[in-house]
Amino acid sequence: MVSQISQTTKLNNGVEMPWFGLGVYKAQAGSEVEQAIHNALEIGYRHVDTAALYENEESVGEAIRTSGLKREDVFVTTKLWNTEQGYESTLKAFETSRQKLKFDYIDLYLIHWPGKDKFVDTWKAFEKLYRDGYIRAIGVSNFKVHHLQTLLEQAEIRPTVNQVEYHPRLTQEPLKAFCESQQIQLEAWAPLMRGKVLDDPVILDIAAKYGKTPSQIVLRWDLDTKVITIPKSVHRNRIEENAGIFDFQLDETDLKRIGQLNKDERTGPDPDALVF
């Protein structure tokens, strides 16, 4: 059972990654994202997830530097945007992100979307950056099984993480099973389905049973299904509420009830439709 906010899972390369973190998608650069991160770190979060697309990497780095914590105490993820895929362009884009964050290294670097046919060359650049010591772990985001199979056929280093849309209405069971078989850790974005799942009668019923909020039930379900989760918020009360999930565990019946809510319903694009 994941019983502490800073508790980690060991990735397939031995790096320890916290099960729980703060997402900063759509958080405004400057005081908004910096205050959100300061609040989260005060509450006990030790994992922050950003991306080049979010245009707040500089503020993320500043928030961590001014938090009073050591750099090595906070696990930081950023991601390569689609327009930068390809070997040389990836190397340049990574350095841009690293300079914006003002870090010597990044804990986890992800390919944001697979696209059509560049991700293998992109991955070779990831492998170089990993071998050169600039990244502690490399992974992917929004990869389906067939993307992973193509990558694994040609990769020298296996991805550590696949960050995908994952919530009770998109449980991605075949993908989850494949990732588990390959020792690739699944991580959830949009774990609360951007709020759309929080008024589901099943979630409300389970929340009443445990004396928890609907969002806490869904985030606990992530952990109890062995999926890393990174809910996003800039509001301290919500950041704190989201973290109130470490003093209980869902029983098998409730895990099954939530899993049965799956409708293969996405809030974001289907990776196969986002071709570039």
UniProtKB/TrEMBL annotation:
<protein>
    <submittedName>
        <fullName>Aldo/keto reductase</fullName>
    </submittedName>
</protein>
<comment type="similarity">
    <text>Belongs to the aldo/keto reductase family.</text>
</comment>
<dbReference type="InterPro" id="IPR018170">
    <property type="entry name" value="Aldo/ket_reductase_CS"/>
</dbReference>
<dbReference type="InterPro" id="IPR036812">
    <property type="entry name" value="NAD(P)_OxRdtase_dom_sf"/>
</dbReference>
<keyword id="KW-0560">Oxidoreductase</keyword>
<keyword id="KW-0521">NADP</keyword>
<dbReference type="InterPro" id="IPR020471">
    <property type="entry name" value="AKR"/>
</dbReference>
<feature type="domain" description="NADP-dependent oxidoreductase">
    <location>
        <begin position="26"/>
        <end position="262"/>
    </location>
</feature>
<dbReference type="InterPro" id="IPR023210">
    <property type="entry name" value="NADP_OxRdtase_dom"/>
</dbReference>
<dbReference type="Pfam" id="PF00248">
    <property type="entry name" value="Aldo_ket_red"/>
</dbReference>
